[in-house]
Design goal:
The protein has 2 domains: 260 residues, Aldehyde Dehydrogenase, Chain A, domain 1 (3-Layer(aba) Sandwich); 195 residues, 3-Layer(aba) Sandwich (Aldehyde Dehydrogenase, Chain A, domain 2). Helix content is 41%, strand content 19%. It contains 18 helices and 20 strands. The termini are far apart. The mean pLDDT is 96. The structure holds nicotinamide-adenine-dinucleotide. InterPro entries: Ald_DH/histidinol_DH, Ald_DH_C, Ald_DH_CS_GLU, Ald_DH_N, Aldehyde_DH_dom, Aldehyde_DH_Superfamily. Belongs to the aldehyde dehydrogenase family.
Length: 523
């Protein structure tokens, strides 16, 4: 087990040494991509900018390894994932250091993603046999046709992942793919390659066959596109704009894909809600990972009956959040990922301020804390035509709006191109669920911002509208990595023997149809 030393910054930087050796290359790398530590803005390493030829080699190696892996039983595959689960927890401190080093997030937010990885390992290792079992289906004719659906691995899965949860959003999607008998080629974001590289080392130490998981690093348009052209399934997590390009490319190759994209997630605070609980819950919902979370709440619609007390409690709670840059557990909110992202978040707030919005707390960068740190920010007076009113900010910035009725809250929440996640606070579970059913989002949480639905690993998670296609988690999250094959065994011939006149046979069939329809009522 690794320890959490006081001399962490130096030790953390040492952890990236040698990790890039695991990148799949056809020959010596000719170009490299630098990796920055957002806490300091300093370059801490570099990884190869892979070429299309490197991607060829990675996919070919994975394809060879996959054939043997598919021959192992699901239980044997699950044992490897269980071992990996233990290694992730044993190596907790070092993995947290690595995630923090390349993302600049607070340790508590890095810890959330590590727990998500472990939970996904346990869930799918325990449930894969059941999820992948042959399924009995109704046959062409009752009793005389025995029909089953079987699940075959698709082959090589390409996983293109973003920087905001570099470990979880790569590894947790890989676990079901591997359990279903596939190989995986990872394409991590260029800002955050190291967590995935260490994850693959750990999977191999846990017993995953060599070559079954490959990593190709480099820029998205070059490496990502090459990967889409070679794999049998694409799992993409990232922005809606890139998702459209990924889907178009996968479509050209007739390769299936899932797209986990952006959100502009609403929360509804309605009469009867426990105001302190809602304010506290939504502080976490808006600021987790410095707001760089696809599920994070960026718009809060509050019924006028509770608007004033909610706004007061919420602004107080947000103002009390400590911004910091360090590897200790005490930091509540970390840095943004990069200079470019800081500029994007800053421009949303500046646009809102210039056009009349009120900043209740925050609103400024904090270079004294870290080069890309930005204060947690609460706005009111935001209109739908402001950038912060309609585009995903993906930072610690939230707007609060008063509404006259529950119907208006629902209508405003649904008035968005996105449909990823929502949160409802209504004072009673039943009222909350009634409202939830009216919200156009793939996940809706009652009395919680996002973790209740996201953590329900047996239930599908994903986006409606521009927030995506397909789902992760549950049966849906493993079936997508399989080809469904229908096997039907016919016990009595469906075609008539030659000696029976077809006219007679047609009459029997027609009578059978009538009989079956009458029997339907007995089901
Ligand atoms: N729905 C979800 O589960 C979920 C989870 C996390 C993040 N997100 C979304 O991700 C976005 C933030 O991530 P980002 O800014 O890194 O996204 P991004 O779309 O810029 O990049 C995501 C990944 O795609 C790669 N890429 C870039 N161009 C590509 C191309 N042409 N072809 C193939 N791959 C390409 C990148 O290198 C990176 O690995 C936000 O919009 C956020 O909401 C969604």
């Amino acid at each position: 087990m690794s320890t959490e030393s006081d001399d962490r910054p130096a030790a953390v930087r040492d952890r990236v040494d040698g990790l890039a050796d695991a990148v799949t290359l056809a020959a010596d790398a000719e170009a490299f991509v630098p990796v920055e530590e957002p806490f300091t803005g300093e370059t801490v390493g570099e990884v190869p900018a892979c070429t299309a030829r490197d991607v060829d080699v990675a996919v070919e190696r994975a394809r060879v390894a996959q054939e043997r892996w598919a021959g192992r039983s699901i239980e044997e595959r699950a044992d490897v994932i269980r071992d990996y689960h233990d290694r992730v927890l044993d190596e907790r401190a070092a993995l947290l250091d690595l995630v923090q080093l390349e993302t600049g997030k607070a340790r508590r937010h890095a810890h959330e993603e590590l727990l998500d990885v472990a939970a996904n390992c346990r869930h799918y290792a325990n449930r894969a046999v059941e999820y992948l079992a042959p399924e009995r289906r109704a046959g062409a004719l009752p009793l005389v046709t025995r029909t089953e659906t079987r699940r075959h691995p698709v082959g090589v899965v390409g996983l293109i992942s973003p920087w905001n949860y570099p470990l979880n959003l790569a590894v947790s999607d890989a676990i079901p793919a591997l359990l279903a008998g596939n190989a995986v080629v990872f394409k991590p974001d260029e800002h955050t390659p190291y967590a995935v590289l260490r994850a693959v080392e750990l999977l191999t130490e846990a017993g995953l066959p060599a070559d079954l998981c490959q990593v190709v690093t480099g820029h998205g348009d070059a490496v990502g596109s090459a990967l889409i052209d070679r794999v049998d399934y694409v799992g993409f997590t990232g922005s809606t704009a890139t998702g459209r390009r990924v889907a178009a490319r996968a479509g050209r190759n007739l390769v299936d894909c899932s797209l986990e994209l952006g959100g502009k997630n609403p929360a509804l605070v309605l009469p009867g809600a426990d105001i302190d609980a809602a304010a506290e819950g939504l502080v976490h919902g808006c600021l987790a990972n410095a707001g760089q979370l696809c599920l994070s709440i960026e718009r809060i619609y509050v019924h006028e009956a509770v608007y004033e007390p909610f706004l007061d409690a919420f602004v107080d709670a947000v103002s009390a959040v400590d911004l910091g840059a360090g590897y200790g557990w005490d930091v509540e909110l970390g840095s943004l990922i990069s200079a470019a992202h800081l500029e994007a978040v800053e421009s949303h707030v500046a646009d809102a301020r210039d056009r009349g919005a009120t900043v209740h707390t925050g609103g400024s960068p904090r270079p004294d804390v870290a080069p890309y740190a930005f204060e947690p920010t609460v706005l009111t007076g935001v209109t739908d035509d402001m950038a912060v009113g309609c585009e995903e900010t993906f930072g610690p910035v939230v707007s609060v709006h008063a509404v006259d009725s529950v119907d208006e809250a629902v209508a405003r929440a649904n008035d968005s191109d996105y449909g990823l996640n929502a949160s409802v606070w209504a004072g009673s579970e039943e009222r909350g669920i009634d409202v939830a059913e009216r919200i156009e989002c793939g996940t809706v949480n009652v009395d919680d911002p996002y973790a209740a639905a996201y953590g329900s690993l047996d239930a599908p998670m994903g986006g409606m509208k521009d927030s995506g296609i397909g789902r992760r988690h549950g049966a849906e999250g493993i079936h997508k990595y399989t080809e469904a094959q229908t096997v039907a065994a016919q016990r009595v011939p469906l075609t008539p023997p030659d000696r029976v006149p077809y006219r007679l046979y047609a009459g029997v069939l027609t009578r059978t149809m009538r009989l079956l329809k009458r029997l339907d009522g007995w089901r």
